[in-house]
Amino acid sequence: MTEGTIRKPGVWSSIAAAAAFGLAVTAGNRKLGFGYYIARHDQVCLFAVAMTLCALQAVVYLMTRGKGGDATRGQHDKRS
What we know:
Elements: H1 3-27, E1 31-33, E2 36-37, H2 40-67
Antiparallel strand pairs: 1-2
């Protein structure tokens, strides 16, 4: 397995987590279950953290995907 194939599920999981937190924030659903509630401020902070991690996962995935095994990258047509 390459790093790109390992990171791809991480990117999709991060997107799903950010979407879930975003949906919870916009719907105003503060009940976590088991009788606990989360404050709106904390909910927004968790959403910001989820978005940040999602963006970082995407950037790292794109960087590892871009590295590829292309040994000729950067060696454009050199004319004398």
